[in-house]
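Why does residue order matter? Because the sequence determines the fold. Keep that principle in mind as you read this record.
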Amino acid sequence: MGKISEKVKKASVRLFEARISEKGRDGSGPAGNGALPEVQCCSIYSTVEGCVLANCLEKTALMRAEYAFAALPGEIKRMLSFAPEKGEFKARADLWGAVLKPVLPGRKYDSAMQAINRWYIHILDMELVKGWEDNGKHR
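Structure:
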């Protein structure tokens, strides 16, 4: 179990770094300020990925994912309750991979990660469309 938690810790550090560096880079927040607002986050369904998993996993596998999520520190759960931001998709996928791999066997893990990655692509696509609309361009 120590090896698993070490992977989760490393992945969460990369996610924090991605979020902090992005905030400093685009001017929407001070660089190095990793403080997040206090949010009550008590379940996997408070995350984008949890909602995706609820639609792609059978009940038993979803319960395993819920259990793994519940074991995460509160700070990580709060961070995951916000939608992914530009520049942190890879780190966030790595974190979810580290959380889910130990609790979901082979194919179920693959399905879960494919669904999460598809949703990330959808989010990025919507950002692209939004950017085009903001600039007067249409599909």
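The helical segments are 2-26, 48-56, 59-70, 74-80, 89-100, 106-134.
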